[in-house]
Design brief:
The complex is a heterodimer.
Chain A (H helix, E strand, L loop, with lengths): L10 H30 L5 H4 L9 H20 L3 H37 L11 H6 L24
Chain B lengths: L2 H29 L20 H21 L2 H30 L2 H4 L10
Helix pairs in contact in B: 1-2, 1-3, 2-3
Classes of the chains: A mainly alpha, B mainly alpha.
Amino acid sequence: MQISRIFGKTEKEQGIMKRMLLGGLSNSLIYWANMYAMYYVPGYPQELKNRVEPHMPENANILTSLAPPATLFVAKKVVKSTGKKEKVGDMALGATLYGVPNFVHDIVVQTAYVEGVNSRPTARLSPTSAAMSRYTVNSPQYNRPVAAASSLSKYRVTS
Amino acid sequence: MDSVEKNMIIGAFATSAVDMGLEANFTYNRGAGRRLDGQFPYIGIHDAIPPLDDWIANAGIPALFYLLGKVTKKQALIEMAKGGAIYGVSQLAGLTLYRVANLATPPAAARYVIVGNRRM
């Protein structure tokens, strides 16, 4: 079996599938290149690292998931030649097949993380006077581990 | 949108749903202070290659759709497999490149990394 047969039976089908895969791959490359820049490039803009809401992914991740398919759909509308319109449309669908599920994926994963952090028991930092604590070990809370520092829980005592 | 496109979108979302289920389980536990690294299916293969759970979701689900489509002779399932494959192949390719780039980054640059909650 030829490997190209996986893409489709006819040459037209194969061409469509290849263009869709190209759309998906290019969207993925943009997304992951941005992810790399976000964590490794020192002057990366803070606005793009921020989140609209704690359950949402970073602004840059929203942009890099949804902007490429949107751009390609606009390009499809703008292009006048029928052949090119079809080709750009195939790439736009491929980019959508990656971008939209990836966007939903990011929201669900971020929400799960936030809920995980919220599920931790909150710290009970009881006020103890010096007189009370001088002779008695009455605050086991001080021995509890503090959550690992991350972008969300950096300043939060969660257990 | 025709039925082929709909089936492909269903396939991509089904693949993504398994991926997000596994990933959400990992990150929920990480948020709660429990580490699942090394436990099935969060088993690392190599530093440059995505872990097993990514392969199960992104390669396994489209393959499953494809096999089911071939066995039951349903074209819709094969179309779903193609949609899932576009999502899965793109995700695995991007993730692999990201991990390779991570490995290639010198430690001096990595000193300034802000580690997020993503598992990559």
